[in-house]
Amino acid sequence: MVYIGIGSNLGNRISNIEKAKYFLKLNGIEILKSSSFYETFSWPDPKKPKFINIVIKSNTKESPQKLISIFKTIEKKLGRSQSIKNSPRTCDIDIISYRNKIISKNVIIPHKRMSKRNFVLIPLLEIDPNWIHPKTKKSIKKLIFSLPIKDITTIKNF
Prior knowledge:
alpha+beta; Alpha-Beta Plaits; 6-stranded antiparallel beta sheet
């Protein structure tokens, strides 16, 4: 399975995510399951607009490099422009996990900061409660329980 994170903190955030899902489907990326929407504070600056995030599950056969290329095209189509790292954006799409593989060449999989991010872990738990981190071999529940309590209490189902 391939797990993909989609987030937005500019414009109509839900619409941006729904459009991203639509464009993924147009590119042949079947969505088997999609989490609920989750709202979180912007990171690293919580004063910036809040994010809405989801995680989707796919069985796409596309390579990670091809997926990244598709994601960049979709992000651009939805109005994302090159700007300062972690600045607000209409759309952000990332590979969270790819077929339980560990890759560290052009793209790093699993996503290197995923196990510290409530907006990835909690939606991922919703769609796959038995998911195991391919590198650390920790269960999704164990990863969530290792988050700071603030990260668990501030994420809101939207």
